[in-house]
Amino acid sequence: MEIIEEKQDGVHIFKLAGRLDSNTSQGFETAIFQAISDGSKKIAIDFKELDYISSAGLRVILKATKAVNREDGKIMLCAMQDYVKEVFEIAGFDSFLPIVATVDEALTQL
Amino acid sequence: MKKKAYFFELKNCLSELDTLCENLEKYGRQIGLSPKMIFELNLALDELFTNIISYGLKDDRDHLIRITLTPEKEVLGLCVEDDGIAFDPTECDQPDVSCSVSQCKIGGLGIHIINKLMDEICYERCGNKNILRLKKRFIKNGS
């Protein structure tokens, strides 16, 4: 899996590409928690190039969301492919995690 | 559609998830499975495999997890065999997935996903082996 990080308008953006599973989730967890401990409170995760996610990936996203919420920050999830979105729906995570269609939409809401 | 069974073995390390994906894509294409079917099979088998590696095989020895796929008339049969500690995923409590961020717990989520994606799950402990048989109705292309 590839993780590209950039900052735009004070928002820390993570662009994920490839597969987020139990073999790769540790790398993403390290990266996102580094950003949180460095003080990022507005985070957008761009799923456009992410082809696959398992419960291990969902776990990292939930954990990061809880950590950011504690700091009065916000995480938004953007541009999910249909199959990936379906995994969030099966897990019931779509009911409480903010999922939007594009990164631009996330930037205006953060 | 060919009615031949297909099997492969995975070593007990998480990097074998890539091997799982490669095998499913290769076999899925051979028998004409839809991309959605391949994705869902991959996810269910990933969750099972990750559970086996994380909880079932705690010693330092090498193990092989054997996965067999058998196309039947209306369903694809799956069989997952490992020699880890006895574990029956059909006996697990369902997590509450209708909750808020602060209440949501992760335990059992993998098994919840497997139950959602599979149409039939049957567990058997046979000697020192866990044998899990699953069935999934074919998803047609385009659906």
Structural write-up:
The complex is a heterodimer of chains A (110) and B (143). Chain A has 110 residues and is an alpha/beta fold. Chain A has a single domain, classed as STAS domain (Transcription Regulator spoIIAA). Helices cover 42% and strands 33% of the residues of chain A. Chain A is built from four helices and five strands, in the order E-E-H-E-H-E-H-E-H. Chain A has a five-stranded mixed sheet with strand order 1-2-3-4-5, sandwiched between helices. In chain A, strand 4, helix 3 (82-91) and strand 5 (99-100) form a beta-alpha-beta unit. In chain A, helix 1 runs parallel beside helix 2 (55-70). The radius of gyration of chain A is 12 Å and the shape is globular. The N and C termini of chain A lie far apart (26 Å). The model of chain B has no long low-confidence stretch (mean pLDDT 89). Chain B has 143 residues and is an alpha+beta fold. Chain B has a five-stranded antiparallel sheet, covered by helices on one side. Chain B is globular, with a radius of gyration of 15 Å. Chain B has helices at residues 17-30, 35-56, 109-117, and strands spanning 6-11, 64-71, 75-82, 120-126, 129-137. Chain B has one domain: Heat Shock Protein 90. The longest helix of chain B is centred in the first third of the chain and has 22 residues, at 35-56. Helix content of chain B is 31%, strand content 27%.
